[in-house]
Every structure is written in C-alpha cells, then in structure tokens.
C-alpha cells in the first residue's frame, strides 16, 4: 500500500479575531495590555476563548493518493483557501499535522513574483525561481514556457506594459512547466479568457494522467465535476462530506433544513410575483402522507402546498417544477392539465396536492412552486422550496456498470425491438437506402 | 527517486533543518538580490552613480562643517578621507537596516502565496547594499591615491570587518523586519534609530576624543569596532583588532545576529496571517 501523497491529520487553524484585522501599532498593543490588566483587577474574567477566536479549520483529516484529483468545495468562508494555504506552507496549522510528499506546485495566484519594472524574460526567471525551479531548469524550459504563453514578441518589454491577460498567461505558463508531483490550485481558472482556461484545464489533465496529484479548490461546479472524481466538502472549517463528486455536490447544493419544520417557508425566502397570494408550506409526501425528503426511483412524487390567498384570483394556475440541484429544470407541470381555465380563488387558505409519475435517476432534486394568472402574470414563485432525493432501491444497482449510470435525468420509456441477424455488407446497403 | 517529504505542523522546525533549507534556497537569495539591483538601476538614469553620490556628498558636507568649521581632529589623515572611510561601512549598515525593516511588508504578496524561507527577504535586502558598497569603495581607492595615502598589509583585515558589518546589519534587520510585520510603527523607529546611532559611532569624529565613560559607551557600540577597524585596515589610524572595542563589537554582533535569527523564525509563522 503506497503512502498517500498528501495527508492531513486533525489539522486545525485558529485565528485570533484581532489578528484578522491586520497589524497593530505599539500604541494599540500597549493599550490592550493596560485594559486587560485593568479588567483582571476588577475581577472580570477574560472573555471566553471562543468569542475572540475563529477556527478557520477544525479537525480536518483526509488522504490523497498518487494520481488522484481531489476537489475541495464549500461555501465562501468554509476554509477551503485556508486549507490550501496550510498545505502550501504559507501559513501554519494551530493543531494537527499534514504531510506532503514530492515536489509541490501551488497555483494560489498567477502573478506571484512578477516585478513590473523587469522584462518578461527576466520575470520568467524570477517567478520560476520563486516557485522553486532551478536556474538551469528554467534555461532548459524557457522556450517552451514562452511558446505556451504566447508573448514571445514582448519578451524584452517591461512587464508594466503587458495587459493583464498577458501577465496571467505568462504567470501560468511558468507554473505549468514546474512539473510538480503535487499541485494545489485555488480558483486560478477563474481568470483568463475561454481559450486560456481551456489550456489550463488541458495542462491539469495531462498532469493527472502523468501520475501527478491535484488538489483543486473551486466554486465552478462544471470544472470540478469534469476533473475530480472525488471531493471533500468543507463547512465552517470542518469536513462534512468526502466521497464521489456527484454525491458531495448533492450535499453541497441542498438547501439546509431543520427536520422539525421541513416544509415551512420562512418569511424572508427569495420569491417573486405580485404577492396576491403566498405559498406558506410545501411538502413532499411519502405514501403514508407524512413529509419525507426521499423517494424511490419510479415511485410517485407527491407534493402538497399550502397557499394563503390575500386578494381574489379568478384564474389561478399552479406550477410545480423539478430541478436538479445545479439549477437545471428537468420537468414542469401546470395545474392546467386538470383545471383548464385556471381556478378561481377567494381570499383564504388553501391546500393543494399533486401526484406526479416520475422516472428520474437517483440524485438530489429541488422542487420549485409557482402560482400564476392564466394570462401568465406571476403571483408567487419560489425556487427550491423543498429538496427530495431520489434513491435507487437495491444496493446492487449502484455497483452495476449500467444501472448506476447518472448521465441525464431520466430514462425514457422504451420498448426495444428484436435484435435481428442480417447479412453483413448487403445489410448495410439496405439500411442506408432509408429506414430501419 | 528520493522523495522530498514535508511535514507541516504547529511545531517549529529545528535550526539544523532550517540551515539545510536555506542552502537549498540559495539560488532564490541571489535572484532576489539580482532583482533589487536590476530594478534600482533600471529606474534611474544616473543609476550606478547614486551609489557613490550619497557617501560622497555626505563627506563633503561633513568635511566643511565638522572638518573645517568645527575643527574635529582626524588623527593625521585629511578629514575627507577620514570621514569617507567611516561612511562606507556605516552606509552599508544603515541603508541595510532601513530598507530591510520594510522589506517584509513590501514583499507581503509573496509571503501570502508562495513558500520559501522568509528570512531570505531581509537577507537579500542587506546584501544588496554590497553592490553600492563596492562602487563607493572604488571611489575610496581613488581618493586614497589622490591624497597619497599608503596602503598597508592591514588591509587584509578588511574582509573580516565587512563580514562584521553584515553580521550586525543582518541581525538588526531580522529584528526590525520581524517586528515591523506585527507593529507597523517600527518603520518610523528605524529612521530615528539610525540617526541617533550615527552620532554614537565614531564616523564623524575619532573615538580617541571620547574619554572615560563616554569612551566605554562608544566601545559598547558594535559599529564603532567596525568603523575604527576600517580606518585601521585602510589608513593605519583608528583602532586595531586587539582593543576592547573590537572584542565588544564581535561579541555583540554575534549576539544580535543569533538572537535576530531566533526572533525572526519565531515570528515568521504568523506573517501570512497578519500581513
């Protein structure tokens, strides 16, 4: 069993809140001393540790093996960048330890090391040296680096004359040729134009296929899904999920709900519409009528909504939408199917329920609800008021090479015709003349 | 293939590992010096000449004010040479520590993004001063020829004195640059410190005019040993490396240097958090 390339054991990083605001002056430091002494004299306790500290990372443990590409995702402030900083030795952990094996490349920012007064050529050497390349190595790779960046014509002009795009390309090119064994990337792909981003992705891909190890921090769902089969999800400095990317993203994107009042809609929920009526509750129901957050593949999807109508609506149309957790609308149903001209609603409270046949693949989905006038004007519309997970029933299905496939959202009802044996050669000509 | 294993933890690395790490990063040190020198001389037309003009003009002013008007004795040597010889190591020291004090903060974007032993930054800043020193030294030789001052075998001691200057300058730079990250008013302290320190060093005057407890204080100043030692090595006046001044200088320089390294290493862990 080979040892992991990157390994974290109980890594924690704590910031003192005063520290976060940056530097102090002697005067401030003295003033603090005096006031805390005075407080002690008065018998007050020092404010509890928690209040003046912030754990950016807490109890983070995971391993990454060679050749693995790991995505690190989480909301802003969850600790992703801090984790990369610790692993890049830019900052030190307050507790725990981490081990990194092999030559490390860190793409925390692409312009590091550049000096505006020096020429492009000089800056390649400077940046190369800063990220850890030897002078001879830079000599050797110099032409390739320049070719990759596409700034050959401007090599001998000072960097201050470069456009920001050129600077980014040059910076990334130097890093691309570092050829590290372990690569940490923090949202670098957010910069540069489409063509450049494509180049970056290719480079990362070739690094992985060459046996390198990559840790990729990003908000870009598509990029992470494309590159990393495994992800860890950080929330408030802790790992809350570690597993296949698809599953981790379901957890990441799901709306957090407490189990006590799963269906209630808070007053400040984001919604649009005239406001003549408001959805107050939306629940997904199980077969026994109780609120659930999980249904089985193929099972009927039951949704019940409670609506408060404030002003009479003569022509209400209700909409129920099913979307994936990354905002792709998969299916929609309007109450028109059953009430053709729209239902007349007087002010008051209403309950409505709907039953949908669904053949969705197993993943998390969000329910959107809307109430509109028959004319199309929206009265109330809310995105993602409920989350439901569609689960495969048998565990065996998950291991099956075909039945576990998640490409797409549903399996259309299909009836396969017979597989008929035909004569080779002649059969093809016949087909091409038209028709199966 | 030998795999480089890095352990990252809250515990501090040992000095032994620190030294071998510095050796591994030696190229980066040279790159930083190269960068600073190149940038400085690219921006100016006169470029290299600035290295000479500063001590030269200081010498001219001192010669007029202290040499002529006040009549400070210069131990048998023409006052211009007397003061210039003192100014050379002094400038290496004072510009070294002034620039180094802010170097950590001005390189903050590097500190927060890439790993390298942080101590390289103030070291590079101080060592860059050697370039200016070299140019000004050539001028000194010119002056000595002009005044007809003989060069003796004492000059062999010069490299040692240069090393001594660097030791004090580096030590002070480590202290100041580390403190400057935490407390930004250190930068102002440095300006005041160098001004005051100049008067405590026998640059403008010979140490021989200080008597009793004044002399003791002057001897205690590690830069005194350097400045008078320079004079001894080049001009034959000053204080030879056998006196109390020299001994104090060596001991205190080493103390400042070693303590500076410790303080810097201790504080560098929090640089990226505070900058």
Explained architecture:
The complex is a heterodimer of chains A (about 425) and B (about 280). Chain A has about 425 residues and is α/β, with parallel strands linked by helices. Chain A has helices at about 15-20, 25-40, 50, 80-85, 120-130, 135-150, 165-175, 195-210, 220-225, 245-255, 395-400, 425-430, and strands spanning about 5-15, 55-65, 70-75, 95-100, 105, 180-185, 215, 230-235, 240-245, 270, 275-285, 295, 300-310, 315-325, 330-335, 345, 350-355, 365-375, 380-390. In chain A, strands 10, 12, 14, 15, 16, 18 and 19 form a 7-stranded mixed beta sheet that branches. A 6-stranded mixed beta sheet of chain A has the order 5-6-7-3-8-9, with helices on both faces. Chain A starts with 5 loop residues before the first strand and ends with a helix. Chain B has about 280 residues and is mainly alpha-helical. Chain B has one domain. Chain B starts with a strand and ends with a helix. The interface of A and B includes residues 26, 106 and 125 of A.
Key structural traits:
heterodimer; A: 436 residues; alpha/beta; Rossmann fold; Coagulation Factor XIII, Chain A, domain 1; 2 domains; 7-stranded mixed β-sheet; 6-stranded mixed β-sheet; 12 helices; 19 strands; disordered C terminus; B: 275 residues; mainly alpha
Total number of beta strands of chain B = 1
Q: Count every beta strand of chain A, where a strand is a DSSP E run of 2 or more residues.
A: 19
Determine the CATH superfamily of the largest domain in chain A: P-loop containing nucleotide triphosphate hydrolases
Averaged pLDDT of chain A: 80
Report the span from N to C terminus of chain B.
38 Å
Largest protein interface?
A-B, 48 and 35 residues
- Give me the Rg of chain B, rounded: 20 Å
Share of residues in helices of chain B: over 70%
Shape of chain A: globular
Q: Which architecture of the largest domain in chain A would the CATH scheme give at its second level? A: 3-Layer(aba) Sandwich
């Amino acid at each position: 069993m080979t040892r992991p390339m990157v390994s974290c054991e109980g890594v924690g990083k704590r910031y003192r809140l005063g520290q976060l605001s940056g530097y102090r002056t002697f005067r401030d430091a003295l003033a603090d001393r005096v006031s805390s002494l005075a407080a002690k004299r008065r018998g007050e306790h020092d404010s509890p540790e928690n209040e003046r500290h912030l754990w950016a990372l807490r109890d983070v443990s995971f391993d990454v093996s060679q050749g693995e590409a790991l995505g690190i995702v989480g909301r802003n402030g969850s600790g992703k960048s801090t984790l990369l900083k610790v692993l890049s030795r830019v900052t030190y952990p307050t507790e725990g330890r981490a081990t990194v094996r092999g030559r490390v490349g860190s793409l925390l920012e692409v312009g590091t090391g550049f000096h505006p007064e020096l020429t492009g050529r000089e800056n390649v050497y400077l940046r190369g040296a800063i990220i850890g390349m030897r002078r001879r190595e830079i000599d050797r790779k110099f032409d390739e680096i320049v070719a990759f960046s596409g700034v050959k014509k401007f090599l001998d002009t000072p960097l201050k004359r470069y456009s920001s795009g050129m600077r980014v390309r040059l910076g990334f090119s130097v890093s691309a040729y570092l050829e590290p064994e372990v690569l940490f990337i923090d949202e670098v792909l957010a910069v540069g134009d489409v063509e450049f981003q494509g180049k970056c992705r290719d480079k990362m891909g070739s690094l992985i296929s060459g046996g390198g190890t990559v840790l990729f921090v990003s908000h870009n769902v598509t990029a992470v899904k494309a590159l990393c089969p495994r992800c860890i999800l950080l929330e408030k400095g802790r790992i809350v999920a570690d597993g296949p990317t698809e599953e981790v993203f379901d957890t990441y994107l799901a709306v957090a709900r407490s189990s006590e009042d799963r269906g209630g809609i808070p007053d400040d929920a984001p919604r649009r519409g005239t406001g003549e009526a408001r959805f107050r509750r939306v629940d997904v129901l199980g077969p026994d009528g109780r609120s659930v957050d999980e249904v089985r593949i193929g099972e009927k999807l039951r949704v019940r909504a409670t609506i408060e109508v404030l002003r009479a609506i003569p022509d209400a149309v209700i909409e129920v939408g099913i979307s994936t957790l990354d905002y792709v609308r998969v299916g929609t149903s309007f109450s028109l199917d059953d009430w053709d001209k729209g239902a007349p609603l007087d002010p008051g409270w209403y309950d409505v329920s709907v039953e949908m046949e669904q053949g969705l693949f197993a993943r998390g989905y969000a329910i959107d609800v809307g109430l509109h006038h028959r004319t199309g004007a929206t009265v109330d519309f809310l995105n993602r008021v409920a989350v439901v997970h569609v689960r495969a029933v048998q565990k065996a299905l998950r291991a099956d090479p075909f039945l576990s496939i998640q490409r797409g959202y549903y399996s259309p009802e299909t009836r396969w015709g017979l597989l008929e044996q035909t004569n080779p050669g002649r059969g093809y000509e016949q087909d091409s003349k038209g028709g199966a | 293939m030998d795999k480089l294993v890095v352990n990252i933890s809250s515990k501090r690395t040992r000095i032994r590992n620190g030294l071998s790490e510095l050796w591994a990063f030696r190229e980066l040190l040279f790159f930083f010096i190269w960068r600073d020198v190149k940038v400085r001389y690219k921006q100016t037309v006169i470029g290299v000449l600035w290295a000479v003009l500063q001590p030269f003009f200081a010498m001219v002013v001192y010669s007029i004010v202290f040499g002529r008007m006040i009549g400070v004795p210069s131990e048998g040597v023409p006052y211009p040479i007397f003061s210039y010889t003192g100014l050379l190591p002094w400038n290496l020291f004072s510009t070294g520590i002034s620039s180094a004090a802010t170097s950590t903060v001005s390189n903050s974007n590097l500190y927060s993004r890439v790993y390298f032993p942080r101590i390289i930054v103030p070291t590079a800043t101080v060592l860059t001063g050697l370039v200016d020193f070299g140019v000004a030294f050539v001028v000194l030789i010119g002056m000595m020829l002009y005044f007809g001052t003989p060069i003796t075998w004492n000059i062999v001691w010069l490299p040692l004195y240069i090393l001594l200057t660097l030791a004090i300058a580096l030590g002070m730079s480590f202290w100041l640059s580390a403190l400057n990250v935490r407390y930004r008013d250190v930068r102002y302290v440095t300006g005041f410190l160098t001004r005051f320190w100049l008067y405590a060093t026998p640059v403008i005057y010979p140490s021989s005019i200080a008597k009793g407890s004044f002399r003791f204080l002057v001897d205690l100043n590690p830069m005194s040993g350097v400045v008078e030692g320079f004079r001894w090595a080049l001009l034959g006046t000053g204080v030879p490396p056998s006196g109390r001044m020299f001994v104090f200088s060596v001991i205190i320089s080493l103390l400042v240097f070693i303590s500076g390294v410790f303080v810097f290493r201790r504080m560098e862990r929090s640089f990226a958090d505070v900058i």
